[in-house]
């Protein structure tokens, strides 16, 4: 494959960088991998190219060192990115605030704005900015494109994006529903429309992105009209380590009665809640094994998870009025047949039926799991955020 046809996609987290080198038209992946534990002594890279996995261990000081390690490992396995070049680098950026709502070519001013948005996404945007900065230094002259997780939801209807708090405070602090996982919701809803052989502009869908983070969206004719995540990715569904919706009064109560600091509450809700808070595990497969072993806490966590899913399903059914498709994606959504069956159980009066054989069939492709003649198509669509980012980056570079 000619390297100048390929796009490098980077997803820089606070202590990790995930990456893929891929051809945006075909989606063929030339290489992919992960650097983890950046900033610690026991850093690690796992790099997969041409079916061969290469692993190195050792300290990785910072994001620049992490990216250099990625480039060195590429060179070692026959892709010298600095010599051969790439068409563009696409960066996943979590928060675009009110400023960014489409893929954006990065220059100094854009990078500074991404950093400024750290107040809205303190865990994510600084790391995203570091990834961009390092890639610019290592590949000068190559277009760097930022693709924002919030962008797809920028034009949510005002009734859906507005929190019922003092408007002066909200305006001063940039408080509104932004929504996240937008690249995934947009991508899978597009694939779903094609699977139904329909124009996306004609299809109403409810999309459940159920991974370690989880979100739902209601999409009318290709445009989102509501989504479950909010100002931050904490709102909405029960997630691996995040609570999703709670009574906001809990925060004041914990600070007053349990003497917790705001950082402790933040950590509690973002890292020690959700499935891990309820059952001690955030990995869904482990949760399922515990349920099978008769663990009551795990069973309750699962029940809470499904209860929340169904509440959003009900709300979005009413929002949309007519629903053509319900779509499941991401690690849990694509793999956990039981979740799909339980989330949609006993909804045949609404035209929602899951075919148990299709639902449990071993199949990794985008597929329909409802009977052909059921009024609502229930679909499983594997997400591919890297491909969507690569395509956006390639489009922007012409
Ligand atoms: P993601 O964030 O999209 O990578 O999804 C991660 C979540 O998907 C984790 O909770 C995994 O346990 C879950 N997951 C992955 N494969 C399966 C599977 N075969 N069955 C159930 N859950 C799965």
From TrEMBL:
UniProt-listed InterPro entries: Ac/propionate_kinase (IPR004372), Aliphatic_acid_kin_short-chain (IPR000890), Aliphatic_acid_kinase_CS (IPR023865), ATPase_NBD (IPR043129)
Location in or out of the cell: Cytoplasm
Catalysis performed (reactions): acetate + ATP = acetyl phosphate + ADP
Entry GO MF terms: kinase activity
Entry keyword Ubl conjugation: no
UniProt-annotated binding residues for ATP: 18, 209-213, 283-285, 331-335
Enzyme superclass (EC): transferase
Positions bound to Mg(2+): 11, 385
Binding site for substrate: 92
Cofactor(s), by name: Mg(2+); Mn(2+)
Active-site residue list: 149
Keyword Secreted attached: no
Positions of the record's site feature: Transition state stabilizer: 181, 242
Pathway listed: Metabolic intermediate biosynthesis; acetyl-CoA biosynthesis; acetyl-CoA from acetate: step 1/2
UniProt KW keywords: ATP-binding, Cytoplasm, Kinase, Magnesium, Metal-binding, Nucleotide-binding, Transferase
Pfam families, per the entry: Acetate_kinase
Enzyme Commission code(s) on record: 2.7.2.1
Classification via Gene3D superfamilies: 3.30.420.40
Family: Belongs to the acetokinase family.
Name the record gives this protein: Acetate kinase
């Amino acid at each position: 494959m000619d390297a100048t046809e390929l796009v490098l996609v980077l997803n820089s987290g606070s202590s990790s960088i995930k990456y893929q080198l891929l051809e945006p038209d075909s989606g063929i992946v030339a290489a992919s991998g992960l650097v983890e534990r950046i900033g610690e002594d026991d850093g690690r890279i796992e790099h997969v190219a041409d079916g061969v996995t290469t692993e190195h261990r050792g300290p990785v000081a910072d994001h620049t060192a992490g990216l250099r390690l990625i480039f060195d490992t590429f060179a070692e396995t026959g892709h010298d990115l600095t010599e051969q070049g790439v068409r563009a680098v696409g960066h996943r950026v979590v928060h675009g605030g009110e400023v960014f709502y489409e893929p954006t070519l990065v220059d100094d001013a854009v990078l500074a704005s991404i950093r400024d948005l750290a107040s809205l996404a303190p865990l994510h945007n600084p790391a995203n900015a570091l990834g961009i900065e390092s890639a610019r230094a290592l590949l000068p002259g190559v277009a760097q494109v930022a693709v924002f997780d919030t962008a797809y939801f920028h034009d949510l209807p005002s009734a859906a994006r507005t929190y019922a708090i003092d408007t002066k405070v909200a305006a001063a602090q940039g408080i509104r529903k932004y929504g996240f996982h937008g690249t995934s919701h947009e991508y899978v809803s597009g694939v779903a429309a094609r699977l139904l052989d329909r124009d996306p502009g004609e299809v109403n869908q409810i999309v459940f992105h159920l991974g370690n983070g989880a979100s739902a969206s209601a999409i009318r004719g290709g445009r989102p009209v509501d989504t479950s995540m909010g100002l931050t990715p904490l709102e909405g569904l029960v997630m691996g380590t995040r609570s999703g919706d709670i009574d906001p009064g809990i925060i004041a109560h914990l600070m007053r009665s349990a003497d917790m600091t705001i950082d402790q509450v933040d950590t509690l809700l973002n890292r020690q809640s959700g499935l891990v808070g309820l059952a001690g595990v955030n990995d869904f497969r482990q949760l399922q094994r515990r349920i099978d072993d008769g663990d009551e806490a795990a069973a309750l966590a699962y029940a809470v998870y499904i209860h929340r899913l169904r509440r959003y399903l009900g709300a979005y059914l009413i929002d949309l009025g007519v629903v053509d498709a319900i779509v499941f994606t991401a690690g849990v959504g694509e793999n956990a047949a039981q979740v799909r069956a339980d989330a949609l159980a006993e909804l045949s009066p609404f035209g929602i039926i899951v075919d148990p054989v299709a639902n449990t069939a071993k199949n990794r492709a985008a597929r329909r799991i409802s009977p052909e003649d059921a009024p609502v198509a229930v679909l499983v669509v594997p997400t591919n955020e890297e491909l969507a980012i690569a395509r956006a980056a390639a489009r922007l570079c012409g």
